[in-house]
Design a protein that fits this description.
Elements (H helix, E strand, L loop, with lengths): L1 H27 L1 H10 L2 H8 L11 H27 L6 H13 L2 H11 L2 H18 L5 H11 L5 H9 L2 H12 L1 H14 L4 H25 L8 H5 L6 H13 L3 H15 L14 H16 L1 H20 L5 H34 L1
Helix pairs in contact: 1-6, 2-12, 3-7, 4-5, 4-7, 4-11, 6-11, 7-12, 10-14, 10-17, 12-16, 12-18, 16-17, 16-18
């Protein structure tokens, strides 16, 4: 009887432990959650105030984001299995030992609770960000492109940056590979979010990453992009109304796409059509300055170096590929990337300083 009672009581105790872990996770992530709760309602409010409700969609990111989250979480499970099989020599049943190791590493209540508190609100946050991004040309029409083109030319010795890259990268197969690498950015983003969401070794680093993650999307991806409204080299002619300096690059990209698939080329017209239709399709919105591809890649590199040297090198190389690709594929002016790097580094430092100051204040209050 005692054994049966203990077994029946186990689920209730498990739920109590998990509930306590969730409450603790909410408490420790209260700043993160507060930022999201304040930011998300701004999207529909901006839509109403500016009469741009047609481009607002707070649920668009959720299905795909959650699907990708599930797929990449499964990838982590499979990766753990491969690692376990190749590095461990378990005694007894293989799969039972593998699952026991996985349970110890990933299925602890506090780790799961911390992970859920981070990732569950993210689709809503990203939908709000993307919705606000789509309002940019309606609130502040694209106007900075000629200036950014001139600054690019000035900073690179009187020539446009793509002209410096063309002798090195102007081969269809090279361009195709670079475009494919540029396209996996979203996969790298989700994997990095999952990695840091599950991290337990350095909780301060993890918190600084996610707070900076939110701040970068808001301040650079929405606020700065709204102020510095620009469409990018690929849309330069359409925005300005005359043939600009990027036509040779675009001619090359379209020609290269006829020889071998260049995935970026397929996105040019799609994004423009959605913009002209004023709709709120998933993952759309035109904005060049600052480059969020480069901003996020810079953030990945920072946290990579903080974790270990190998990850730091891998993420830095990835960020460099994103920077070069953004110019060669006509998505961005080089200055978009430069500004993103500098601002992301500054925001990382600012968030870290704020965390340290808040920590000192808590210690003072505890000692009082």
């Amino acid at each position: 009887m005692t054994s049966i009672a203990v077994t029946a009581d186990a689920p209730r105790r498990g739920l109590e432990v998990f509930g306590a872990a969730c409450r603790e996770a909410v408490r420790t992530h209260q700043v993160y959650l507060a930022i999201i709760l304040i930011f998300v309602p701004l999207a529909p409010i901006i839509g109403i105030v500016t009469n741009t409700e047609s481009v607002i969609g707070l649920t668009l990111q959720m299905p795909r984001f959650l699907l990708l989250l599930i797929l990449f979480s499964a990838t982590i499970f499979l990766g753990h299995g491969v690692w376990f099989l190749t590095t461990k020599r378990p005694k007894g049943a293989l799969f039972r030992s593998m699952f026991a190791d996985f349970k110890v590493r990933f299925l602890q209540p506090q780790r799961i609770a911390n992970f859920l508190v981070i990732v569950v609100p993210l689709p809503l946050f990203m939908s709000a960000y993307n919705s606000i991004k789509r309002t940019i040309p309606y609130i502040n029409p694209f106007s900075w492109d000629p200036q950014f083109a001139e600054w690019d030319k000035f900073l690179h010795g009187g020539v446009h940056p793509y002209e410096l890259l063309q002798p090195l990268l102007g081969t269809p197969w090279v361009t195709s590979i670079l475009a494919s690498l540029y396209g996996i950015w979203i996969a790298v983003l989700i994997l990095t979010v999952i990695w840091q969401g599950l991290a337990t070794r350095d909780t301060a680093l993890r918190m600084q990453f996610f707070l900076t993650y939110l701040v970068v999307w808001i301040l650079l991806g929405n606020v700065a992009a709204m102020i510095l409204s620009s469409a990018g080299p690929v849309y330069f002619d359409r925005i300005i109304g005359v043939e600009g300096p990027y036509q040779p690059l675009l001619n090359y990209l379209y020609t290269a796409n006829q020889e071998v698939m260049v995935v970026s080329v397929r996105g040019y017209q799609y994004l423009w059509d959605v913009y002209m239709a004023g709709s709120n399709n998933y993952g759309t919105g035109i904005s060049a300055m600052p480059s969020m591809h480069i901003a996020m890649s810079t953030l990945f590199a920072i946290v990579g170096w903080k974790a270990n040297r190998t990850l730091g090198i891998i993420y830095t190389v990835f960020a460099a590929v994103m920077l070069v690709g953004s110019v060669h594929l006509a998505w961005h002016y080089a200055i978009d990337g430069y500004v993103s790097i500098v601002c992301t580094l500054a925001l990382w430092w600012a968030v870290g300083s704020g965390m340290r100051l808040a920590g000192r204040r808590r210690l003072v209050r505890a000692a009082a």
